[in-house]
Structures are given as structure tokens and as C-alpha cells.
TrEMBL record:
It is found in: Membrane. The keyword Transmembrane applies. It comes from the Bacteria. The keyword Transmembrane applies. Residues 211-356 form the RDD domain. InterPro entries: RDD (IPR010432), Teicoplanin_resist-assoc (IPR053150), VanZ-like (IPR006976). This is VanZ-like domain-containing protein. It comes from Glutamicibacter nicotianae.
């Protein structure tokens, strides 16, 4: 029983971690593509992420503790005879009868292979807006990739295969995807389909509200934190493998500066005059006359606005050996409070950075 349920725990934890780190990015892509967020589309995306981790957990885990652990005669020999499971069914029925067959591991292993791939067929039809053929092809491709990965020891990561690559698994998995694609047309799965919407680029311009600007800030904060996390983890791994070592000044100051520059300041200078998060929310920094803002003013707004605030936050939370750290924290908090006050109560929705730079926001589709 534990063997059946612990991969599900891994899938839930892995899916939750993935959504926590990449969820903002997925929401930003959704808003950029559709012009709004949909709870149905968001739930289905989260379901697909957890299911993907579940598929990995049940087909690949646990991993061997060493590369050569399963390099022994008679271990993980591939099964390449189609329909072998039918012969196993007959043998169990003869030995244990129909009642014993109904509770046998032989039967439930096949049923589990079918059940495991049914969600893939459902998602192919409802989430990807495909059809039955799409579900079958996706199920076949996913199962083939899994079996080849098992057969090659995760493509050479392990010296020998540690799981049995079975052609019958390919057959039953594809059958499960087919069954899932068929039942996906039942009304009970309709909620998995997001609303049918045209490309947001073709939609009319909408008013720029505080909520929309706040959402753009959330996107920018997510891009910044996600990039810092991924790059820091990669550099840490590189260092552990004997690569170049990066000092605290690089990690605590220069890396946040580079990331904030790429997320906030460089896009503000580029045509479109908006940060990455603002671009996903279809916003553009505009002049008082309503057209695109000059590059210098757009950059000044980003430096004084959320881009500068984000940079101060990133370095003030990591500068543990610099004497101005308490003062920097205090100044950042004061400036954030003043900026938030202007953002909430300013009648023109411009905020403190907008007041100083003489800029505002428009929907970029209005041009």
C-alpha cells in the first residue's frame, strides 16, 4: 500500500513546489495570451502540473543509489513480446480462479497502467483542446518516452536499466489515454476547459486600473525572484561540481542588479516602454499627452518605481556584512510606504514615480 501512495505524495509536493516557483510565470503567460485570468484555466494548469509529477513519480522513482546498483544478471530485462499480459491472465485464472484473478496483482498492475494514463487523454481533449486522436498520439508518445527512458537507464545516467521496459505497458498506457480521451467528452469534465477567447492582441484596449497595475507588479516580482532562485541554484551546483566560485558581493549585489536590469530597466528602454510584467499585462508607460513615453522618462519611472524598490529589497535582504544595511532597510521601507500611499490614494492612478517622472500608463493596444 505504501508503494502505491508514496509516489502520489511526491507528486503533490513536487507539483506544489513547481507551482510555487513557476506559478507567477504561468499566470503571466496566461494573461499575456488571453488578456485576463481564468480560474478554470488556472485550476487545469495546476492539475496538469501535479499529474506530470505523478507520472514521473510512478514510472521513474525510486532512483538507484548508485549508477551500477542494478547491473546484475536477470535484473530489469526488457519485455518485448506484445500481449504477454494476456498469457499471465490465463495462468492466474487457471491457478486461482476468477475470484483470485479479480484481486491479483497481475490484473491490477495492468488496470493501474490504464488508469494512470486516463488523465492524459482527458487533458489532451479538455486542456489542449484536441480530440481523441490527439489523446491517443499524446499517450503513445508519452508512454514510449517513458519506456525508452527506463530501457536506457535514464539515457545513460545509470549504467544499466533499473526498471523493466515493457511493450505491454506501451499498449495499456495508450489504451488508457484512449479511454480518457473518450470520456473527456462527458459534461462532468467540461470545467477543465478554459473559456474560448480570441488572442489578447486582437482584443480592444481596456482601462488601466490599480488592480491591473498591481498584477503587473506581481508578475515582475515573480520573474525577478524566480530568475534569482534559478541562477543562484545553478551557480551553487556549478561551484559544488568544482567550477568557478562566486563571492558574496557577486551573489548579493551584482546578480540582483543584473536580474533587475533585465526584468525592469532594459525592457523600459526598449520599444514598448514597459517592464516584462507590464508587457504581460498589456501596459505601456505613456507621456502626459497619451503617447509612448520617451525612453529616459520610462527608465526614470522604473528606477523610482517598482524596479528600484525591487532592487533595494533584493540587496537589503542579503547585504549581511555591509554597515549601511540597517539604514538601507529603513530608507527602503519609508520609500515603499510613501509609494504605496500614492498608488492607493492618487486620483490619477499615477503613483509617486509617475508624479516625479511625469508619466502614466495606457493599454498598449490603444495605439
Amino acid at each position: 500500500m505504501q508503494t502505491m501512495f508514496w509516489p502520489a505524495t511526491i507528486a503533490i509536493l513536487g507539483g506544489a513546489f513547481f507551482l510555487a516557483t513557476a506559478g507567477i510565470f504561468l499566470l503571466a503567460v496566461q494573461y499575456r495570451r488571453h488578456g485576463r485570468l481564468s480560474w478554470r484555466r488556472t485550476i487545469t494548469t495546476a492539475t496538469a502540473a501535479i499529474y506530470g509529477f505523478g507520472l514521473f513519480s510512478y514510472t521513474m522513482l525510486p532512483l538507484p543509489s548508485s549508477r551500477d546498483e542494478f547491473c546484475r544478471p536477470g535484473v530489469a530485462i526488457p519485455q518485448l513480446v506484445p500481449g504477454r499480459f494476456l498469457d499471465d491472465f490465463k495462468l492466474v485464472i487457471v491457478e486461482r480462479g476468477l475470484s483470485g484473478f479479480a484481486t491479483s496483482f497481475t490484473l491490477w498492475q495492468v488496470l493501474f497502467n490504464i488508469i494512470l494514463f486516463m488523465p492524459l487523454g482527458i487533458l489532451a481533449v479538455r486542456w489542449l483542446r484536441g480530440n481523441i486522436i490527439t489523446g491517443v498520439l499524446l499517450g503513445f508518445a508519452a508512454s514510449l518516452a517513458i519506456e525508452l527512458t527506463q530501457y536506457t537507464g535514464i539515457w545513460g545516467l545509470y549504467t544499466c536499466a533499473y526498471r523493466v521496459a515493457d511493450v505491454d505497458d506501451l499498449i495499456t498506457n495508450t489504451a488508457g489515454a484512449l479511454l480518457g480521451a473518450v470520456i473527456a467528452y462527458l459534461p462532468m469534465f467540461r470545467f477543465l476547459s478554459g473559456p474560448v477567447e480570441a488572442d489578447a492582441a486582437q482584443a480592444p484596449a481596456r482601462p488601466v486600473t490599480r488592480a491591473r497595475r498591481a498584477l503587473a507588479n506581481v508578475f515582475d516580482a515573480g520573474f525577478t525572484s524566480g530568475a534569482l532562485f534559478v541562477i543562484s541554484a545553478a551557480l551553487e551546483l556549478l561551484q559544488r561540481l568544482g567550477g568557478m566560485e562566486f563571492g558574496k558581493q557577486w551573489m548579493n549585489f551584482w546578480l540582483p542588479l543584473i536580474v533587475v536590469f533585465l526584468v525592469f530597466w532594459l525592457p523600459s528602454l526598449a520599444p514598448g516602454r514597459a517592464t516584462l510584467g507590464q508587457r504581460c499585462a498589456w501596459l505601456m508607460v505613456a507621456s502626459k499627452q497619451g503617447g509612448p513615453s520617451p525612453a529616459g522618462r520610462a527608465l526614470l519611472r522604473s528606477l523610482l518605481g517598482f524596479g528600484g524598490i525591487n532592487f533595494l529589497f533584493q540587496i537589503s535582504t542579503s547585504m549581511d556584512e555591509i554597515s549601511v544595511y540597517p539604514l538601507l532597510n529603513m530608507l527602503a521601507v519609508i520609500y515603499i510606504a510613501i509609494s504605496a500611499f500614492y498608488f492607493i490614494f492618487d486620483a490619477d492612478h499615477r503613483g509617486l514615480a509617475g508624479k516625479i517622472s511625469g508619466t502614466g500608463f495606457i493599454d498598449r493596444r490603444a495605439l
